[in-house]
């Protein structure tokens, strides 16, 4: 009987690796980029560097991405690839609602017109460069020029993301020396371990491109929906900001916004934050062995949970960790931000850390951005929580 896929948030630290690129590729993928100094709804020039673009794969898929440089030191800070789950949830959701440097002014929205964007200081771009990518095709602004003749699957997505990274670093070689992390939430927790292993195996075959790959973060499958019409959106104005996502659809379906982002006209008539109806084949049923293989090689890892996660309760995450059969080296203790307890943590052998984030739901940075920024900053710096 198949084992259910693990559902959790995870950070894996890998040693410096070489990223494989096949010399026998039938056609070289290409990339188009666009600098975005301003965004409709944001007052004045953006206080961070934003680039958008498409990586055009040789199978007809066009993967759309947002790249935000670190606001601290882009030449030295890590590069982090962010994948949002689903499958079918756009990377913009992770950018706006979780770890990116701007958010929608929900309280100031009057119910009509373009929402206002506000700067968010508790962003992971304070400590890292971040690539947000829409994957698979059919998600966000990514699309398939072949008319979806090939249904995306776990295996296909892993290969496409691998090629995406190769192509992106070809265009941005100045970031090759930076520590590189793969990150994400929700269903990307199924994709990231085999993607990390695919990169890890590359060094065994003498890959020709050097990328300073360091880590992967993964989360658990979520269930989110946006209001489907204006009446519904207006009625939701009285509901708490964190439980409504409709402003992202209002904003990004505005034509001037699409033009500023360089969206290919006619490819995605109506953007959805999450489209759970896209055709997709789920092939990976058990990722535990993959995690064990990575951990056994000595890669640092951190698994974390929001302790108010109703979708994937932290007790389930702890049960999954117990399947790894790792000895505890530092037992349960609180961790702090500004002198306040913001969660509890435990350390296992093989450099595995588990942490809870107090008061956080399924997508922890969305609920506790300051605390999660402190968490990622300490972890990237090699400091204990």
Description of the structure:
The chain is of the alpha+beta class and 385 residues long. It has one domain (9-288): Rossmann fold, CATH 3.40.50. The protein contains ten helices and 16 strands. Strands 1, 2, 3, 4, 5, 6, 9, 10, 11, 12, 13, 14, 15 and 16 form a 14-stranded mixed β-sheet that branches. Strand 4 (50-56) and strand 5 form a beta hairpin. Helix 2 (154-171) packs across helix 3. It starts with 8 loop residues before the first strand and ends in a 5-residue tail after the last helix.
Give the tags.
single chain; 385 residues; alpha+beta; Rossmann fold; 14-stranded mixed sheet; two-stranded antiparallel ribbon; 16 strands; disordered N terminus
**Proportion in β-strands:** 15-25%
Report the mean per-residue pLDDT as an integer. Answer: 82
CATH architecture name: 3-Layer(aba) Sandwich
Decide which structural class fits the backbone: alpha+beta
Number of helices: 10
Shape: globular
Order of helices and strands: EEEEEEHEEEEHEHEHHHHEHEEEHH
Q: How many DSSP-defined strands?
A: 16
Return the CATH class.
Alpha Beta
Briefly summarize what is shown.
This protein has 385 residues and is α+β, with helices and mostly antiparallel strands. It has one domain: Rossmann fold (3-Layer(aba) Sandwich), CATH 3.40.50.1820.
């Amino acid at each position: 009987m198949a084992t259910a896929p693990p559902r959790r948030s995870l950070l894996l630290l890998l040693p410096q690796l070489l990223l494989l690129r096949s010399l026998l590729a039938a056609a070289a993928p290409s990339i188009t980029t666009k600098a975005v100094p301003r965004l409709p709804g944001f007052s004045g020039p953006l206080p961070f560097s934003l680039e958008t673009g498409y990586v055009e794969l040789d199978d007809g898929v066009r993967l759309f991405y947002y790249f935000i440089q670190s606001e601290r030191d882009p030449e030295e800070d890590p590069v982090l690839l962010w994948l949002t789950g689903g499958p079918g949830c756009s990377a913009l959701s992770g950018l706006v609602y979780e770890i990116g440097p701007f958010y929608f002014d929900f309280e100031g929205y009057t119910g009509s017109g373009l929402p206002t964007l506000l700067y968010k200081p508790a962003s992971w771009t304070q400590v890292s460069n971040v690539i947000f990518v829409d994957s698979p095709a059919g998600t966000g602004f990514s699309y398939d020029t072949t008319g979806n003749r090939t249904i995306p699957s776990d295996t296909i997505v892993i290969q496409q993301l691998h090629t995406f990274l190769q192509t992106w670093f070809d265009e941005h070689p100045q970031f090759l020396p930076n520590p590189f992390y793969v990150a994400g939430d929700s269903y990307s927790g199924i994709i990231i371990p085999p993607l990390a292993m695919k990169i890890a195996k590359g060094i065994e075959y003498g890959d020709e491109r050097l990328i300073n790959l360091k880590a992967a973060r993964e989360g658990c499958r979520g269930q989110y929906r946006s209001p489907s019409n204006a009446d519904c959106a207006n009625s939701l104005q009285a509901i708490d900001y964190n439980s409504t996502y409709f402003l992202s659809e209002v904003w990004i379906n505005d034509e001037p916004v699409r033009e500023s982002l360089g969206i290919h006209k006619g490819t995605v008539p109506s953007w959805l934050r999450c489209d759970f109806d896209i055709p997709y084949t789920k092939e990976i049923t058990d990722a535990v062995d993959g995690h064990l293989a990575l951990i056994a090689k000595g890669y640092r890892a951190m698994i974390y949970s929001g302790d108010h996660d109703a979708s994937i309760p932290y007790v389930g995450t702890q049960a999954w960790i117990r399947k790894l059969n790792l000895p505890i080296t530092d037992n349960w203790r609180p961790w702090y931000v500004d002198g306040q307890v913001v969660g509890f943590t435990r350390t296992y052998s093989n450099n595995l850390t588990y942490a809870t984030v107090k008061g956080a739901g399924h997508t922890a940075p969305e609920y506790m951005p300051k605390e999660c920024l402190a968490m990622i900053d300490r972890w990237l710096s090699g400091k204990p929580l």
